[in-house]
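Page 37, continued from 36.
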């Protein structure tokens, strides 16, 4: 639905003119709105701009409804970062560039600018994952050396199994294939994690790297050979230190090798950066045993073919329970290689919202970016004294993790994830896809052969159950009464096991299954703003259909939402809250704002919103020849929205609540991590995985596709769209390799 001005003022917690924000989740942001006299809809701000034309009609595109057919019957997608007139971008770093004693990683995501002085600071960058097709295709060309891809592919194809997987961990260390797999896996993990680079704006107004002593990489193999282990705090450390357990133990105690799958993040008021480990399950097994120990590395075998590369932790024997956490790093300390705070929980973390107010407990908010994932809040045991003091990092070492329970009436409560919390799972019939996964719990006496005292293999202790029928929930509740019944160990070990298994423990406790939460932002009055990217379901589960509905009540609904959550009493430690949906993605004709799949949602000090989208790569520009599929059901229209984009939503004036298109990304990429410098004259932006599906754009390859488009009033008409195949960004030279990179966006002085 379109957001009315009054709703946006409520969203901002008061008059938009009174809004002020600190740099809690990236760079300082400030955009002011003033009247615009141009006839074409425009935004007058520190980053004032005339919106660019996108692939579908918008309320804010400057055309009348009757002009949409004429102006959108044809459209051409461009393999570049497209910005408004008067704006330009500069590439500041890309995959393969030197960083300290290592290199700039792959698929850069979250960005945080930490000022040192005026026009100078540290840029912290997350590196999320490897896009198999372009990474393998261009590795030798970009990095300057070869990897044994062909040899390993040939070996895997020669297996009796039809799968392209192998448990390299179980092979002899002298096995030539294991050695080659180790070489590939180390390089892939090296390109993940996070990095710190020092930058400044020179006298010509250009940004440049200064390559200070603080420049460094913290990668997926930090500590493996260089001794730069990551540290950990909180109850899960007791599990890491176990010398014996039900499952796999890496014998490193509380030392941790690396960080990977680093997606979104946050910045604290005391100047540290928080990096969120998201889809770690692609590299190591996610489920754990009832004592919190890991499954054997063989449960996530290494895999390689022309389109896939996963299981990179297998050959290295990584303990899976050490991944899926929030990592804190101080960019200014060159000797800081990261601390994983286990009180914040282990799950597929996406973003971190930090609420630090003097005299109150510290509150951290984060979401689990999976279908059916939850919203979480950590509350510290002690209170904040000075929000800018680095002593606040110690508050992350003691507290409680909560998961959100949303009620259909707009209320909700926080469920503590601790041993005495009751078992109360939601019913599968309330969840899109009719599936919820619950912890299996430990082996019981009934599951043990009393004569031989041999534990039977099924069900195994730990792991999770697929529950698809409501009656199964009643049976589960008869067997397990509290989270205490699902986990084993001493008191701290049991709390650690719950935090390690946070997603499944939260399912058991009754936390609401949501729609891929991809950002958690703190507003000026303490409210939490959450972007939910997609309401579809998969084998992991789906969202609660009583909460997540389309503009006309559709479930499941693919195109996303923005939610506001208000703590009762405006207290970060409150046990209850209120919530409201404030915007829904989708086409304007059906109640959407014109974007699809909202991701980062950034609120500037003036109360305005900058947002980037996360349409799945395989859906970008996919032809939509009909609105009805072969089964007579509504067809997916994700392809209509073109490339992933950057949007601006003002919150005051006559255009409040409308979405203006600021930019679109190169082919097959995701635009991520936007943030501003303190003077709001420079925007940093990540361009992630250009050419992810098709790799290098060869011979300027181009396809013409057809789309059934609608005007903002719902009139259908056919659009022919020219779509490049693959990418040559950032060089844009013919047949050049696509590379993820970070850009700085500025406007001309005359604009």
């Amino acid at each position: 639905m379109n957001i009315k001005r009054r709703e946006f003022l409520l969203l901002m917690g008061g008059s938009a003119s009174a809004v002020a924000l600190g740099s809690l989740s990236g760079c300082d942001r400030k955009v002011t709105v003033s009247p615009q006299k141009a006839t074409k809809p425009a935004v007058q701000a520190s980053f004032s701009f005339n919106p660019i034309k996108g692939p579908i009609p918008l309320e804010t595109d400057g055309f009348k409804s009757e002009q949409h057919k004429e102006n959108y019957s044809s459209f051409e997608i461009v393999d570049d970062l497209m910005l408004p007139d008067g704006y330009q971008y500069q590439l500041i770093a890309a995959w393969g560039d030197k960083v300290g004693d290592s290199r700039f990683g792959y698929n850069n995501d979250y960005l945080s600018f930490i000022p040192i002085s005026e026009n100078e600071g540290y840029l912290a960058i997350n590196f999320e994952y490897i896009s198999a097709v372009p990474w393998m295709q261009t590795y030798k060309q970009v990095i300057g050396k070869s990897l044994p891809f062909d040899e390993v592919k040939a070996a895997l194809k020669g297996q009796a199994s039809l799968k392209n997987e192998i448990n390299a961990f179980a092979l002899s260390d002298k096995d030539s294939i294991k050695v080659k797999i180790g070489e590939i896996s180390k390089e892939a993990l090296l390109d993940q994690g996070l990095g710190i680079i020092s930058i400044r704006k020179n006298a010509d107004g250009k940004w440049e790297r200064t390559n200070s002593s603080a420049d460094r990489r913290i990668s997926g193999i930090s500590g493996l050979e260089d001794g730069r282990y990551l540290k950990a705090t909180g109850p899960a450390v007791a599990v890491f230190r176990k010398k014996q357990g039900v499952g796999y133990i890496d014998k490193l105690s509380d030392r941790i090798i690396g960080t990977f799958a680093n997606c979104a993040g946050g910045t604290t008021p005391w100047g540290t950066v928080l990096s969120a480990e998201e889809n770690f399950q692609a590299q190591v097994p996610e489920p754990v045993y009832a004592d919190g120990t890991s499954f054997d590395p063989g449960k996530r075998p290494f895999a390689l073919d022309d389109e896939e590369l996963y299981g990179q932790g297998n050959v290295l024997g990584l303990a899976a329970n050490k991944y899926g956490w929030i990592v804190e790093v101080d960019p200014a300390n060159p000797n800081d290689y990261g601390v994983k705070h286990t009180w914040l929980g282990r799950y597929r973390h996406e973003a971190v919202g930090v609420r630090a107010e003097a005299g109150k407990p510290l509150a951290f908010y984060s979401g689990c970016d999976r279908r059916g994932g939850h919203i979480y809040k950590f509350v510290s045991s002690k209170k904040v004294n000075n929000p800018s003091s680095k002593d606040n990092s110690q508050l992350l070492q003691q507290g409680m993790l909560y998961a959100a329970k949303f009620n259909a009436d707009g209320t909700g409560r926080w469920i503590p994830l601790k041993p005495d919390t009751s078992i109360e799972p939601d019913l599968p019939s309330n969840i899109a896809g009719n599936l919820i996964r619950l912890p299996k719990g430990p082996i019981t006496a009934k599951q043990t052969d009393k004569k031989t005292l041999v534990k039977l293999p099924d069900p195994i202790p730990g792991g999770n159950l697929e529950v698809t029928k409501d009656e199964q929930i009643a049976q589960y509740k008869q067997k397990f009464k509290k989270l205490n019944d699902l986990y084993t160990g001493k008191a701290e070990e049991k709390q650690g096991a719950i935090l390690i298994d946070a997603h499944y423990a939260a399912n058991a406790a009754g936390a609401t299954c949501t729609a891929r939460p991809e950002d958690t932002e703190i507003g000026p009055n303490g409210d939490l703003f959450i972007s939910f990217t997609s309401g579809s379901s998969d084998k992991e589960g789906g969202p609660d259909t009583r909460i997540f509905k389309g503009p006309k009540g559709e479930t499941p609904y693919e195109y996303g939402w923005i939610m506001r959550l208000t703590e009762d009493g405006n207290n970060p430690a409150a046990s209850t809250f209120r919530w409201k949906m404030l915007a829904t993605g989708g086409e304007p004709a059906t109640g959407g704002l014109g974007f699809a799949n909202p991701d980062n949602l950034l609120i500037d000090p003036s109360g305005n919103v900058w947002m980037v989208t996360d349409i799945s790569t395989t859906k970008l520009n996919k032809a939509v020849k009909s609105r009805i599929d072969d089964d007579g059901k509504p067809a997916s229209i994700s392809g209509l929205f073109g490339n992933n984009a950057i949007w601006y939503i003002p919150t005051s004036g006559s255009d409040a609540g409308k979405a203006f298109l600021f930019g679109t990304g190169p082919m097959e990429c995701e635009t991520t991590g936007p943030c501003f410098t303190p003077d709001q004259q420079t925007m940093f932006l990540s361009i992630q995985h250009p050419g992810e599906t098709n790799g290098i754009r060869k011979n300027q390859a181009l396809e013409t596709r057809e789309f059934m488009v609608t005007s903002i009033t719902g009139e259908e008409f056919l659009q022919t769209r020219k779509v490049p195949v693959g990418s040559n960004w950032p060089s844009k030279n013919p047949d050049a390799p696509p590379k993820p990179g970070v850009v700085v966006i500025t406007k001309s002085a005359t604009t």
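Confidence is low (pLDDT under 50) at residues 1-40, 445-460. Flag for discussion at group meeting. The longest strand covers residues 108-117.
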